[in-house]
Amino acid sequence: MDSKNQELLQPAEQNNAPRKSEVVIVEDNEVCERNMASSGAGRDERWILAGATALVTGRSKGIGRAIVEELVGFGSTVHTCARSEAELSRCQEELTAKGLAVSFSVCDVSVRTDREELVSRVRELFGGKLNILVNNAGLTLSKLTLETTTSDYTQQIVANFESCFHLSQLLHPLLKAFERGSIINISSISSYLAYPYLAVYSAAKGAMNQFSKALASDWAGDNIRINCVAPGLTRTPLLEEHPTPSVKET
């Protein structure tokens, strides 16, 4: 493992020497400090990821956008994607105004060819290496089981589970090449607790949970860590689209 990779994920106080990154968006500690300050915390309160590269899916709003801002604040060079070019452009402008540099692609993770094109873009951007993959993009269709069509079922399974599986598979060579790869899968509390209207979504996120456990064992020998995070109800634009008044009021 080279010295640059050994420095990743170290406490800030142990990793404060200036450095150059292979990707030039985050070049040195001055840039890291400015990005951290824009995220609301000082160097002594944070970990830094200077030199790390990251791909975050589904970043134009909500949890995905917050993840992108945090990773850039920690010093990572981030590429991200979402389905809407207009929303990505708007988000790009807002992040640029904060001094946060992020590259992006339009990608529908439920489309196989889009996923393949995204991986090709990431490979080109980051020189064939990737440190962090955040599988955040997903889809919620809130319907009672008897009202759920075959199309509804397929859309949710593909967007919430198949995309996670396929992107992890496609990006394995890049994560392995970095020698300290990390995958973070964004699941949901509904994978553990039962809610009405969310049977298929809950099943897809439950599959993600078990896939994460199996993959952690499968790829441990490649020095790739896999973690799964299951947020509870979070005030995001997605929550506003939920049709159940009791959920909105919680």
UniProtKB/TrEMBL annotation:
Alphabetically ordered keywords of this record: NADP, Oxidoreductase
Renumbered residue ranges of the record's region Disordered: 1-20
Cited Gene3D superfamilies: NAD(P)-binding Rossmann-like Domain
GO MF, one annotated term: oxidoreductase activity
Positions of transmembrane segments: none
PROSITE patterns registered for this protein in UniProt: ADH_SHORT
SUPFAM superfamilies, alphabetized: NAD(P)-binding Rossmann-fold domains (SSF51735)
Taxonomic superkingdom: Eukaryota
UniProt xrefs under Pfam families: adh_short (PF00106)
Biased composition (Polar residues): 1-18
Homology family: Belongs to the short-chain dehydrogenases/reductases (SDR) family.
Protein name: Uncharacterized protein
Source species taxonomy: Eukaryota, Viridiplantae, Streptophyta, Embryophyta, Tracheophyta
